[in-house]
Design brief:
- It is globular, with a radius of gyration of 17 Å.
- 48% of the residues lie in helices and 19% in strands.
- It is of the alpha/beta class and 166 residues long.
- It contains eight helices and five strands.
- It has a five-stranded parallel sheet.
């Protein structure tokens, strides 16, 4: 994984603001919150009054409430969280590396600080039972994301799940 420096990202944002006068921005990057130190430095240098949307893993959000609070303070209004599925067995099967409880906790933390949730979920995973599909639907109902993206599983060549499906 290659990470740009905070200063490099801020300089690019300055150019974009001067050129386009953006009112909102989305950091559609699964790695945006991987490094807490990087995120906190980014928050220190953020200077625009613009709405922000980010992506964040459930485990990162649930284990870093102070970071999520700070992100809300600089204008993060939306957090896209890949909840994926509503059972621990399926989370483990797809190698998500997240506990089911973290899906709920991350959503609670976002709501606590006024951030809306875009939840992404999958149905039709290999070996998924009807009961597990219904557990995913129940999780969605409990989390109540403001925006829901529901995907049907598609095996991608070169992945463990593709090989499993073959």
């Amino acid at each position: 994984m290659r990470v740009r420096s905070v200063d490099n990202v801020i300089e690019e944002l300055k150019v974009l603001m001067e050129r386009y006068k953006f009112k909102s921005i989305t950091f559609w990057d699964d790695t945006f919150t991987f490094n807490k130190k990087w995120v906190m430095k980014f928050c220190e240098k953020w200077r625009w009054d613009s709405g922000i949307a980010i992506t964040c893993r459930a485990d990162i959000a649930s284990n870093n409430e102070d970071m999520m609070k700070r992100l809300s303070e600089i204008g993060v209004q939306w957090v896209c969280i890949g909840h994926e599925t509503g059972t621990q067995r399926m989370l483990d099967f797809i190698g998500k590396g997240v506990k089911l409880e973290q899906n709920y906790k991350s959503s609670d933390i976002c709501r606590k600080y006024g951030m809306k949730i875009m939840g992404t979920n999958m149905l039709g995973l290999p070996t998924e039972t009807k009961e597990e599909s219904m557990a995913t639907i129940e999780m969605i109902k409990k989390i109540e994301p403001e925006h829901l993206q529901l995907f049907y599983f598609t095996p991608i060549p070169g992945t463990y799940l593709y090989d499993y499906c073959i």
